[in-house]
Design brief:
mainly beta, globular, four-stranded antiparallel β-sheet, single chain, three-stranded antiparallel β-sheet, 106 residues
Length: 106
Amino acid sequence: MSITKTDMGAGTSISRQYPWGTTITARALCSDGKVRTCYNIKEADTYFSIPCNVEVHGFPIKGYITFNTRDGYSTETEDDPMQVEFRQYTYSDIRGLLPAWPKHGE
């Protein structure tokens, strides 16, 4: 088995284990602007949302990682690279520790 780490924009990264391409670790940008390590990563049901947790002030926050550019697009350009973003589940029992993501263009 081999592990590959892909560095992405904003100091984020994702590591996958092959031959299956399973995500094993990630550093994701949170809505408060901090990059945090994701843990308890689950097998994804789609490529676009991988369930995981991050820790904020000692509390586990449930959510998922996804991939966007800084400007909110799914296609990166040289001046707008792809980054890993953590999104908190809206039904999470711990709310308020992370602000809502701003709508793109605001």
